[in-house]
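Pipeline run #58 for the internal structure catalog. This entry was flagged by the ingest filter as a single-chain record with no existing model, so it goes straight to prediction. Upstream metadata was stripped on purpose; only the residue string is passed forward. Reviewer on rotation: M.T. Logging verbosity set to normal.
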Amino acid sequence: MYDQQDSNQQDKVVIVGTDIDKEQKVEETLQELERLVETAGGETVGRIIQRRESPDPATYIGKGKLEELKALQTETQATTVIFDDQLSPAQQRNLEKALEVKVLDRTALILDIFAQRARSHEGQLQVELAQMRYVLPRLGGKGLVLSRLGGGIGTRGPGETKLEVDRRRIRSKIHDIEEEIKNVCAQRAVHRSRRVQSGLPCIAIVGYTNAGKSTLLNRLTDAGVLVEDKLFATLDPTIRLLVLPSGRKVLLADTVGFIRKLPHALIAAFRATLEEVVYADVLMHVLDAGAPDWQEQSKAVYDVLKELGVADKPMITVMNKIDSLSGPAKFQQLFWKAGAVGISAKEGSGIEKLFESIEEVLSRLNRAVTLLIPYEESGLMNLLFEQAVVQEKEYKPEGIEVRALLTPSVAGQLAEYIISGKEPKD
């Protein structure tokens, strides 16, 4: 058994990557893993790369590479070894036995960061639920992941007293948390229905972690959201009102950043948080223009959107951080390939063009209708002028006839007054 480290000490970490998929850019994913370690409060002191056709069923890496890893861990005095891929419970136990240090995988590391970052009650519940689901199949054999009492990466969240229990109690706790999350989701649904009744379209800001989503939200709405140059700086969703130059009002929702190799279980655990994406009218996909692997990051985001069933929603693609680019040729080529709006959320450049794109996308959502508003309901005209595009109005004996462009939510509110109109195009 390994010695427990002081909870105030920084974890020394050796990271391990495997090049199994020939198309996988293992160096890039390890760089990202190193940033995740830094975000979690650790220090990467070494790395190992294993190239083989398939993972070893017992230890994920081969015997020779395991000996190399042990030597590196001893040399660097690393307290933790983190694999860039998900380990099976048996692999994790075998590795901990062989290395005699804490062994984690990418999933456990991300969960640890989530545990640090969750601020809302809902976010904390989701983290606890995900950690419980992660640890349940790892209870057999009671490996080091459950026996450690010290601090450091992988120990945050529910706490050992909640985890060191039998399977029955774990399952019972999972059920309790799921029920509590249902109640929280019900409250969120009430708030969402109020927003729908307001008739304001909602744009969900999505993107790879650290792409600059929160910076953009602050630039557009003065939201005052915490901005850090760390992965997963934002975990809990933030919704703010945006008034476009035309006077039109929309809601902007900032969401948790996505990342490569995000396990299905984590997506499922955070589905409640991601509901803002599911129920949004439009998605704003923010990419880091300065990231060398922005295309891979874009694919990772798209994969999650597909899993959520929202990949076909209207989308505005935004290439952020154009201030980090050098040379006009690179700039033009990048945007030609991406078909995106180029901005710098930090400096404010390109925001006017982004507003134009938002207006254009919202106009495509609109439904062209003719309404007949009874004079006794003339107060509804305020709603139309605030939340729709009124093209023409005419006072008639039976009421006010209005030709306007309505969002789906406003059209739903005023359905009984619509006398003609066409359905929105796909």
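catalog note: Residues 12-163 form a domain with the Rossmann fold fold (CATH 3.40.50.11060).
catalog note: DSSP finds 16 helices and 14 strands in the chain.
status: ready for reviewer M.T.
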